[in-house]
Structures are given as structure tokens and as C-alpha cells.
User: Fold this.
Amino acid sequence: MLRALGTTLLAAGLTGVPSTPRAAAPALDPLVWTGLATAPTKRTEVASAVVGGLIYVAGGFAAPADTVGTVEVYDPAADAWSTAPPLPVPVDHAMAATLSGQLHVVGGFASGGASDGAFRLDPGGWTALPDMPEPRGAAGAAVAGGRLYVVGG
Assistant:
């Protein structure tokens, strides 16, 4: 996972063969890698988006490839992690984007098949949105012109 936030590039991913989840998220400071707070849950195949300067990491595989609904939030200013309400449905390979200042998580794989589910994180928890027209997983998501687009999958 790579995400740009201001002038800092955050990277998290896998190490080893076979792949092993790695929770550390080093930051690129012009020419120096700096270790940051370790993510609470080791996961792969997550969805992530930036909302209000915070990085949300949702769903994914936890070792040994269990699909989870875990949602954790990284605050770069404090170099600290917190938890958010879990997804209503555990998914891996989901897509996330920020629309109207709120986190949206759509699609992914749940129970072995692609999902058409769509959810928005509101102050009181997750709200189910109308299902996507077609199930999608491992796709791309972007916001343009006030609309959320899902491409591929």
C-alpha cells in the first residue's frame, strides 16, 4: 500500500517468501526511511483512504489469510493508531475512497465471492448504501465531480 499525505510517503506491505504480513509503516523523509508506530493488526489486501488527515485501513487478510472487518486509523501528526468500528461485513480486496469528507468502502471479496456491498462510515458507525450494480473486488476506486467511481475488478 502506498499513500501520499502532504510531503510524506507512507508505505506498508509484505516481507518474506512466502508472503508474511508486516505491520510496520515506514515513512520516506527525503532520503531516509524512518520507522513509525507499528500497526495494531498485521493484514494484507486492505482498503485505505485519507479522511481529514487520518489514514483509514479497512478489512483485509489477517494471518493465516482470515478475512477480517477490522478498521484502524493512523494519525501521522501523533504517530499513533486507533480503532474505528469494524466493517459490517469482513472483506478483503475492497476499495476505499473519501467522498464528501467521509470514508466509503465498497466491494471486495466476502465468503469467497466478489461483493456488491457499499458502506459509509458515519459518526455513529457504518451505514449501508445501495449495492453496486455488479460485484467487484481488487478494483480501483476514485472520486471525481462528487461521485465515487469503481473501475475494474
Remarks:
- The radius of gyration is 15 Å.
- Residues 1-5 have pLDDT under 50 and may be disordered.
- DSSP finds no helices and 21 strands in the chain.
- The longest strand covers residues 47-51.
